[in-house]
Amino acid sequence: MADRLTPEQRSRNMAGIRGKDTKPEMLVRRCLHSLGFRFRLHRRDLPGNPDVELPRWRAVVFVHGCFWHRHGCRNSRMPATRTEFWETKLERNAERDKEAARRLKVCGWRMFVVWECALRGADRLSPDELAERLKGLIESCGDEGEIP
Ligand SMILES: [Zn+2]
């Protein structure tokens, strides 16, 4: 289904979501903090520049915008115009994500992704649900996982 936003509008929207210290990321940080996890932010020296690193758990957490990282949910619909441009751009993002995940794994990092739609919009999780899911992932023995 086509998206009703023009690419320009979408760009503007997404620009606000993309940078550091965006709201979804703050939600995740606050949640981790309230759970008592110790973490570090924006490790430039790690593949993919994870938003959060939990050294004790040898884990990193990415907060991914659904559109930019092709979640496949309704927030990641392709714009109706300049579709090819967006396809190419998002394909590159997906490649970068895959490469970062591969390199993190090689270095023994566990990698978790929290999707933006779990944090805001109609399908968002309650703070308690988010906390439960995050804690469950980090304290699991799994190497990867995502919310939702
Ligand atoms: Zn999503």
What topology does this entry show?
Blueprint: H1 7-18, H2 23-34, E1 40-41, E2 52-54, E3 59-64, H3 83-106, E4 110-115, H4 127-139, E5 144-147
Parallel strand pairs: 3-4, 4-5
Antiparallel strand pairs: 1-2, 2-3
Helix pairs in contact: 2-4
The chain binds zinc ion.
Kindly summarize this structure in a few lines:
The protein has 148 residues and is of the alpha/beta class.
The termini sit apart by 22 Å
- Indicate the CATH topology: Endonuclease, Chain A
Q: Which molecules are bound besides the chains?
A: zinc ion
Main sheet record: 5 strands, mixed
Q: Give the CA-based shape.
A: globular
Total helices: the number is 4
| Major beta sheet, strand line-up | 1-2-3-4-5
Oligomer: single chain
Written account of the structure:
The radius of gyration is 15 Å and the shape is globular. Strands 1-2-3-4-5 form a five-stranded mixed β-sheet, sandwiched between helices. It has 148 residues and is an alpha/beta fold. The mean pLDDT is 88. Helix 3 links the parallel strand 3 and strand 4. Helix content is 41%, strand content 14%. It has a single domain, classed as VSR Endonuclease (Endonuclease, Chain A). The longest helix is centred in the middle third of the chain and has 24 residues. Helix 2 crosses helix 4. The protein binds zinc ion. The site of zinc ion has 8 residues, from loops. Zinc ion binds next to loops.
Keywords:
single chain; 148 residues; alpha/beta; Endonuclease, Chain A; 5-stranded mixed beta sheet; 4 helices
